[in-house]
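If you are new to this repository, start here. Below is one unmodified record pulled from the training split, so you can see the exact layout before writing a loader.
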Amino acid sequence: MTTERFGWLRTPDPANQLNPMWITLAAATGLFLASVLQLWFWGIRFRHLANYQLPVPVLLPTADLPPVSIIICARNEADNLRNNLPLFLEQDYPFFEVLVVNDHSSDETEKVLLDIQQKYPILHVLSIKEKTTPGKKAALSLGIHKSSFDLLFLSDADCRPTGRQWLKVTQRSFQQGKSIVLGYGPYQKRDGWLNRFIRFEAFYTAIQYFSFAIAGHPYMGVGRNLAYHRRVFQHANGFSSHAHLASGDDDLLVNQMATAQHTTINLFPEARIVSAPPTSLGGYYIQKRRHLSVSSHYRWQHQIALGALAGSHFSFYGLSLLLVLMLPTWWPILTLNYLVRMGVVLHVSIGASKHLGERDLLPFLPLLDLAFLAYYLLFAPTLLTGSRIQKWK
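And here is the target side for that same chain:
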């Protein structure tokens, strides 16, 4: 047998700078490492969520339920407030208040809030007339300082609870010494592939931060469904450590303050907050770029773990494609490697979807998982540099 049948084994031309054999060896080694990392994340770390058992709730008498404050920041959200705010105000809970901070809106937000306030006395309207810092941290800080109670529940104007039990079910998680409660905030289901990917990306992100929290390493939460005790905000000195960043009022505060001892998750279906998704690729790009811009400010161990997850995900597909192009005869091995990983991903996703209510995404999982190649390429500059974003709306 001669080496002519296998061009990649021929002695390279000295004029060539790259030896195809070494390229193949490097790609195969990289794919092996990427596969191991992916199997570890999905087969070990993310399995925590798939196997999670909902705790048996401790039901307190109505008279013993502590009072709570719901805080929502809004800028030019007249229509969303008109549609969503009553759902927060009509929670089945004995004693609570809702504070909405109007962050120098230019639409009818203030008028809508005052109209709603006439019907719901528990609504308190606060206003910021001039902008002093980037993002909504000034508005949120004002809402927290003006709130009357120590249990703080945060959400957004474009969000709505799935029912009247959200407040009561989420409040239960503060028992047993917990002071930070991470909730799930799925996006509304609509037609189209963009909506599927947006929902899948939120689902995938939730798998990550819930699994890490269950394993004792909480690192983020989402501001549309987040609750914490006032002392968390006070011990962090508010948002002072990242006040110069437009985003991070949710995940950077959690990353700074959350520990395994006092952080918990709430996966009860009644505790979900549903958010309106972006309807265009441009809108989604702006939103995600703002969210991802603060990831470079996470604790170093979280940056390493999330970087390994993203890097191994991208490399798994990229190197598989490279090797199948260079070595077509390897397709059985590469196909088997793909099927093993996808089998583990699907198994864990099925378990996670039972808690997060995203089962309709499972038939599209292989395509949505592959689409993350484009996602990583699109947001690579933001992920690598933490490009500063100055606006939140």
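Two things worth knowing about this chain: Residues 1-9 have pLDDT under 50 and may be disordered. The chain has two domains: 3-9+17-45+302-379, 62-288.
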